[in-house]
Amino acid sequence: MSLKLTDITLTYPDGDTRLTALDQVSLEVPRGSLTAVVGPSGSGKSSLLAVAATLITPDSGTVTIDGASTTGLTRGELTEQRRHKIGIVFQQPNLLPSLTAAEQLQVMAGIDGRKPRTARSRAMELLDAVGLADQSGRRPHQLSGGQRQRVNIARALMNDPSVLLVDEPTSALDHEHGAAVIDLITRLTHQQATATVLVTHDRAYLTDVDQIAEVHDGRLRIPAMKRCSA
Asked: Under a CB-based contact definition with an 8 Å cutoff, are residues 195 and 37 in contact?
């Protein structure tokens, strides 16, 4: 099991009281599988993703990655955990405008201390996996929205994370390109053997995910479990 959330409760200050964002949420995501988290705005989807990413510490409960609990880790240790174990695909690609597609990925490897030649090889391998090997020398303004999102996904995989967390990757794309991005994430989840959590409000893309988890008012339920045919 690569990612496990156990009895997660998260609250925020709200005047004289506290607002419950997550209420005793538990979720298990095996390696090589994709779990989609769905629910209306304000239901707790983003809070769940932030807790799984160790960006927010819950009031109670545990986050376990590769069998090790993150409870009690210092801020520096959590940063190291994210660097080596967690890949995050943000809603907006936020690519650096002066860097080529390959360089966007190589920067991540540089932060991790990899040698330039090794970083270049890994970057090209991932760009090929997302269908952009022939666009490796292009800068963000030379790429379409869908291509920028694919670079964003490849960048999140650069340091071989065991957990991949994806936040609304189709929000700025039309249906055709959105479906292609979800198909890509599904394929890469299996190829790279990541435990992937995908937050989305749109169920239309979720025909091939392994598990669907619904969040409503901070509570999570899993109405169905299915294995993808790929």
From this structure: no
Q: Is 194 exposed, middle or buried (0-12, 13-18, 19+ CB in 10 A)?
A: buried
- Give 82's DSSP letter: H
pTM equals 0.90
Determine, yes or no, domain membership for 86: yes
Q: Do the domain assignments include residue 152? A: no
Q: What is the domain-level CATH number for residue 24? A: 3.40.50.300
H-run or E-run covering 59: none
Question: What's the domain count of the chain?
Answer: 1
Nearest-angstrom CA–CA distance, 63 and 187: 25
β-pairing, 68-69 vs 60-65, is antiparallel
Phi, psi of 144 (to 5 degrees): -75, 170
**What residues contact residue 149 under an 8 Å CB cut-off, 6+ apart?**
93, 169, 172, 173, 181
Tens digit of each residue's pLDDT (9 = 90 or more) over 197-214:
999 887 888 888 999 999
Domain that holds residue 221: 3-94+160-225
